[in-house]
Amino acid sequence: MERLKMQSRDVVGGNVEKIAALFPQCVTERLNKEGKPELAINFDKLRAELSNEVIEEGEERYQFTWPDKRAASRLANEPTTMTLRPCREESVGKDGTPGGFDSENLYIEGDNLDVLKVLRETYLGQVKMIYIDPPYNTGNDFIYNDDYDEVKNEFEKRNGLFDEEGNQTFDRMQRNTEANGRFHTDWLNMIYPRLKVARDLLEDDGAIFISIGDDEEANLIKICDEIFGEQNFVASICHKHRASVSNDRIISENHNHLVFYAKNINVLFSRQKEIGEDPVLEGFKFEDERGKYKLTPVDGPGGAKKGNPHYEFLGVTGYWRYSKETMQMKYDEGLIVRTNNGLQQKYYLEQAKLSRRTVTTWWDDDFLTSSATSQLISLMGAKTFDNPKSVNLILRSLKMITKFSTDAIILDFFSGSATTAHAVMKLNAEDGGKRKFIMVQLPEVTDEKSEARKAGYENICEIGKERIRRAGKKIREEFCRDMPSACSNDNSLFTNETSQSDVPTLDTGFRVLKLDSSNMEDVFYTPDKFEPSVIEGLVDNIKPDRTSEDLLFQVMLELGIELSVPIRNEELGGRNCWIVDDGYLIACFDTDVNETTIEEMAKLLPTHLVIRDASAANDNVLDNFDQIIESYSNEKKITTHIL
């Protein structure tokens, strides 16, 4: 039986283990801050293993640095005990039902750095695409003000974040004006750890798109070169974001950048034929038994310079696209025909649908902020958000990366007005995909005088959730109009050849989760810091305001189970149990759990079975626990955990 840790993974500890496996001679032991022994790296020995010549401190080298960069990097690696608590009443079901909790989309409220850490273990290498629109650092916007926890000392005291009594003296968000002596530093310290954690979530063929203005584009690229690797830079795409001319600058800045990096350029490049723009499906005016087609050249462009073969075919001598054998085979199959323009080949519409056009770095479509604002006002009934991103901009990015990955996970941890969620639902409606979105947003309070506050939105999260509800409703209505069978339970719509399972479904809902402190009391993590009398007086190590569903989600995070999987409640042996992902996990947090409940849980052969330490009706239940589980382990290995 394994005892759950109920905290995010120790990234530094994991890295030490990796180095120990490669260079065991570079690992030593030391006492940590609590006076307990731990493994540590002997960096002098490690440097000697990696280079014949050690770079000395202060020696000139190419590097990109700023004040407190090391603290920002450490912040990304620090584990967290925070968790995500489900909020059913604010959630929306797949079919748009308020309060429904069956959606595979997630809307998470909370500081995005902590949320990314919480998600890191569960979604490690699972996200196909990340899109973010962080603060541009123009001198007028707000940025996150992180707590660089150096044991509440050097960093905070130096920067005035805590007073003499140790009380926090800063707000979570602060306006970063150009008068701030740490103008670029604060922005860099904000974005660096978030990108560092986010990289871990990407699949090997995944990609990240970051919207940014001129103010920090150069610094952003330097940071991304360091985190993702300079070789994984794909492009800095320019797109037009305003049509009017601004007279407050020497040259009117009418574009924004979309910085594009791959997780692994070689893996992404192997999918190059899948990446690009939708093809132009025009001119297919001919048709045969194979379908619609148009005629295209078969001669070799570039001639000898491009290495095209030169020979005579059907009385015509020239440079051709294919070898003579391939030409003959295509001719025999009726794919090459004589026309007034000489020899041409048939190019079928179905072939064209699978092709992609090469993307350029200049996007001049209607991605204007003014258009996006007008569309959002039309949807929401008021100007609820300043400078929203264009749905079409994100839609174009999605089509590039996920056109053929229709079950992809898309993450946006600067969700804002939730444009990314809108775009994901829209694309799924267009092509029948089942892409899932994860939106993360700090519940930043709206200005008291803003149109958003007047419309009743207390914070940005309320705007984002309502935008998804309204956009989802509109998209679903259009989807059901075009494909009524997908929105009906009427079996008369289906024939013997088709069933409802064959019809594409559309998920326009979302599960709301909110970042909070751990469900466990402090004594759970550091029992050695409490007097024995305090521990003996505790009835439970779980906070009294937490529900069994709260506990379930923290357990799911620790076991690496996606937070979007099906969850149901069922009574087993007279006790309330949670059955997750069709029995992959079964958990019971009730009290007075007896052998009958344990046996009923084991009969369902879960991969993971979880109970609370305090759940057992008596000591005999815990004594017999392993024996009961073992009696069912011949059919399947059941990993048991205690909380």
Find the count of extended strands (DSSP E, 2+ residues). Answer: 26
Tell me the fraction of residues in β-strands, as a range: 15-25%
Categorize the overall geometry: globular
Which regions are unreliable across 5 or more consecutive residues at pLDDT < 50?
A: 148-170, 491-496
How many DSSP helices? 20
- Proportion of helical residues: 25-40%
Please give the radius of gyration in angstroms: 29 Å
Strand order of the largest sheet: 4-21-5-20-19-6-9-11-10-18
Report how far the terminal alpha carbons are from each other: 10 Å
Secondary-structure-derived class: alpha/beta
Q: Any overview of this molecule?
A:
With 643 residues, the protein is an alpha/beta fold. Helix content is 32%, strand content 20%. It contains 20 helices and 26 strands. A ten-stranded mixed β-sheet has the order 4-21-5-20-19-6-9-11-10-18, sandwiched between helices. It has a six-stranded mixed β-sheet with strand order 1-26-25-24-23-22. Helix 12 packs across helix 13 (419-431). It starts with a strand and ends with a strand. The model is unreliable at 148-170 and 491-496 (pLDDT under 50).
List descriptors.
single chain; ten-stranded mixed β-sheet; alpha/beta; six-stranded mixed β-sheet; 643 residues
What's the topology here?
Blueprint: E1 2-3, H1 11-22, E2 27-31, E3 37-41, H2 43-50, H3 69-77, E4 83-86, E5 106-109, H4 112-120, E6 127-132, E7 142-144, H5 154-159, E8 173-175, H6 183-201, E9 202-212, H7 214-229, E10 233-240, E11 255-262, H8 265-269, E12 286-288, E13 291-297, E14 310-313, E15 316-319, H9 324-332, E16 336-339, E17 342-348, H10 349-353, E18 362-363, H11 369-380, H12 391-402, E19 409-412, H13 419-431, E20 436-441, H14 451-454, H15 460-482, E21 511-516, H16 522-525, H17 532-537, H18 548-559, E22 567-572, E23 575-580, E24 585-588, H19 595-603, E25 608-611, H20 619-630, E26 639-642
Parallel strand pairs: 1-26, 5-20, 5-21, 6-9, 6-19, 10-18, 19-20, 24-25, 25-26
Antiparallel strand pairs: 2-3, 4-21, 7-8, 9-11, 10-11, 12-13, 13-17, 14-15, 16-17, 22-23, 23-24
